[in-house]
């Protein structure tokens, strides 16, 4: 099971689950905990192979996991703690996992806050992924990670975010990094499916105004999805929870408190079953 930390303020308080991105760990939420525990029970998870979660590769199937597998890791923690439903907050690739939870177990998701959301890969992002695939076996993975971090967060004011993610990525083993990188083969069809399918779950996108790679796609999808809204945080890049933590916290908490009374809804019985998202990994 994944390593996790929980902060319990009251048995009947709503839960907020924080999900970090690839190469990070639950420590990237250090600027959020103090404010959120004033209102919510908080659960922070380290994804497999990240932070204090050990490599979970006991079989060939585990060694070549996909998005559904790493998503179910999070659901397993909820089951262990008897958390029936919760609000979910993610950053970067963590937003994809949250969105996938809403497909695999929609009754567990009260709302979603998507920070630095990855909704679609633009041309620059696709080139970046392709370059990584070309050189991943010949170039030390930390060189690639530093390069990616600089492309995604290029400005001087993004320096703290870059350093935080790079320092956390150093704790990820080379083989584990490769397993996570293979997930890029799933990204395009999975994101296309998410784009085409609206969700009834209240969703707030919190994006930095300088998130040049991903903000345009979020603007587009919010215009099409009825239960989603976008708030742009000034003077901030991709990792807006670190660049502007006070703004991120205030906006996220206000949104969550607005939907807390509704709680989680049961999955509609009449809705056709969701197509399998377990795509083949090359």
From TrEMBL:
Highest rank taxon of the organism: Bacteria
Domain AB hydrolase-1, residue spans: 16-250
Keywords: Hydrolase
Presence of keyword Phosphoprotein: no
InterPro entries xref list: AB_hydrolase_1, AB_hydrolase_fold, AB_hydrolase_sf, Epox_hydrolase-like
GO molecular function, one term: hydrolase activity
Listed Gene3D superfamilies: alpha/beta hydrolase
Record has Hydrolase as a keyword: yes
PANTHER family referenced in this protein's UniProt entry, alphabetically: MONOACYLGLYCEROL LIPASE (PTHR43798)
Name of this protein: Alpha/beta hydrolase fold
Organism of origin: Chlorobaculum parvum (strain DSM 263 / NCIMB 8327) (Chlorobium vibrioforme subsp. thiosulfatophilum)
Higher taxonomy: Bacteria, Pseudomonadati, Chlorobiota, Chlorobiia, Chlorobiales
């Amino acid at each position: 099971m994944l390593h996790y930390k929980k902060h319990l303020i009251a048995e009947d308080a709503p839960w907020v689950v924080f999900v970090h991105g690839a190469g990070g760990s639950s420590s990237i939420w250090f600027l959020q905990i103090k404010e959120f525990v004033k209102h919510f029970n908080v659960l922070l998870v380290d994804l497999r192979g990240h932070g204090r979660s050990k490599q979970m590769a006991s079989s060939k199937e585990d060694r070549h996991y996909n998005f559904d597998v790493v998503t179910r890791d999070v659901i397993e923690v909820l089951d262990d703690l008897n958390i029936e439903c919760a609000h979910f907050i993610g950053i970067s690739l963590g937003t994809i996992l949250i969105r996938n939870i809403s497909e695999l177990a929609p009754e567990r998701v009260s709302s979603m806050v998507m920070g630095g959301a990855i909704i679609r890969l633009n041309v620059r992002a696709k080139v970046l992924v392709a370059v990584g695939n070309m050189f991943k076996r010949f170039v030390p993975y930390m060189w690639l990670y530093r390069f990616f971090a600089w492309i995604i967060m290029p400005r001087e004011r993004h320096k703290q975010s870059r350093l935080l993610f790079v320092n956390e990525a150093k704790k990820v083993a080379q083989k584990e990094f490769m397993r996570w990188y293979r997930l890029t083969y799933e990204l395009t069809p999975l994101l296309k499916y998410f784009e085409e399918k609206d969700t009834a779950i209240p969703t707030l996108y919190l994006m930095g105004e300088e998130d040049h790679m991903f903000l345009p796609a979020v603007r587009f999808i919010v215009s099409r999805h009825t239960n989603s809204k976008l708030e742009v945080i000034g003077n901030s890049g991709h990792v807006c929870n670190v660049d502007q933590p006070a703004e991120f916290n205030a906006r996220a908490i206000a949104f969550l408190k607005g939907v807390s009374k509704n709680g989680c809804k049961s999955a509609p019985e009449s809705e056709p079953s969701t197509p399998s998202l377990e795509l083949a990994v090359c």
